[in-house]
Amino acid sequence: MTPVRVLAVASEVYPIVKTGGLADVAGALPLALKAHGVEMRTLMPGYPDVMRRLAGADEIRRWPDYFGGPGRLLAASHDGLDLFVLDVPHLYARPGNPYVTAEGIDWPDNGLRFAALSRIAADIGHGLVPAFVPDVVHAHDWQAGLAPAYLHYDGRPRPGTVMTIHNMAYQGKFDRDLANAIGLPRDATFDVHGLEYFGGISFLKAGLQLADRITTVSPTYAREIQSDEGGMGFGGLLRERAGVLSGILNGIDTEVWNPQTDPHIAYRFGTNDLTFRAANKAVLQQQFNLDSSDEAPLLGVISRLSWQKGLDLLLETIPTILGEGMQLALLGSGDRDLQDRYQAVARANPGRIGVVIGYDEILAHLIQAGSDALIVPSRFEPCGLTQLCALRYAAVPIVSRVGGLEDTIIDIGEADASDRDATGFKFAPVTADALSGALRKANATFRNKGAWRRLQLSGLATDVSWRNRAGDYAALYRDLIARRG
Ligand code: ADP
């Protein structure tokens, strides 16, 4: 195996900074790639949390003026990850979320903040750090979308580039006047095969247009984003570039998500012995103020509360949930309106519906370990991670038939058609009616203990690890390097 060096560029990396699935991928993929002969280093911004955790990192370079203020490039190792950290206090030393203010508004200088990240990625691509000259620069999402653009417009020999889309909805759109401040030729912002996007610029478009390869996080999402609707403005571009676009499913960190060793759950359980799930269910019911009952199917949700996730549809099915004698434990945060509506439903249905608003990793583990089924009713879902964790914890997924949900769950009605065993319930179209139907079917199946157990066991037997998926990325890097010569 020829060793390959890859610079990954990501705006969040688990376990250091996480707002969503991108962090999980950026944190797990480098570890899984080691077995495939790929040495990956990850470049991320030096947010306060990062600087606190990586105190003692080595300084590699220092600039008196980097995008308007002093900046440094650091190298550090953390939890098996090899990191480059761009420490530019005037861009990143801010409290809270990496992308938005405490009021939930995008930081007004996000264009500058993430152009700075991409700029340094391109410089490392060109050999800024002699000890690590990458064969490939792998950019994740719009925050890294300019990395392929800087490399492209520079004109010097460059490494191969890969752009991965974790969510088409986030496109990094800015005013074209930004071009001067970020050091790209103004022509590039008028280039319809470059950054230009409906009179402005889009960092995501830059990456999609100029990277050698494009990947997204499931084969079905790779198809969906080539449509006008799924492409959210980029369907045409992606149809044109279909030859270099592929979908590689995400895995999960099977160490962090291991019911046999999980320190966050009340009772650990093995893959052959699910009896302790009942004990976890009892603790979960307590924590969500639900009636203690083993007979009532307990539905779990762990999600951002946003239009994408379809949780407004789940609200419409509350009468079905109550009518079928089911319970609901929901953990989520996001849209104010949805938060308020869920809290109101919980107040109106004590003992039956429990809601915790917030971000709580420990509680997320307990929901996976204690709920009977996990609901993911997304309108679109590039891959989705919670349903993968659910498979590993024997919570049966009930999911909409979109994106990675379609690819990772086998519906109870599909089992005969494929030679794989069913692992859950899928519904389409993404409507409250179809979701209600799936909930009723799940309830009926739950009453048949043998059938339910078969679903749980085939879920547990599903490979949700990064092992094979990392192999697909390694093959992609090698193929790209070979073709570029
Ligand atoms: P997305 O990245 O679109 O939010 P994914 O399913 O790909 O959705 O990844 C979400 C990740 O964030 C999962 O690891 C999930 O467990 C976690 N998560 C989402 N909401 C919460 C929450 N409120 N508390 C704890 N973890 C959460």
TrEMBL record:
Residues 288-442 form the Glycosyl transferase family domain. GO terms for biological process: glycogen biosynthetic process. Signal peptide: none annotated. Pfam families: Glyco_transf_5, Glycos_transf_1. Its EC number is 2.4.1.21. Keywords: Glycogen biosynthesis, Glycosyltransferase, Transferase. PANTHER family: ALPHA AMYLASE DOMAIN-CONTAINING PROTEIN (PTHR45825:SF11), GRANULE-BOUND STARCH SYNTHASE 1, CHLOROPLASTIC/AMYLOPLASTIC (PTHR45825). Synthesizes alpha-1,4-glucan chains using ADP-glucose. This is Glycogen synthase.
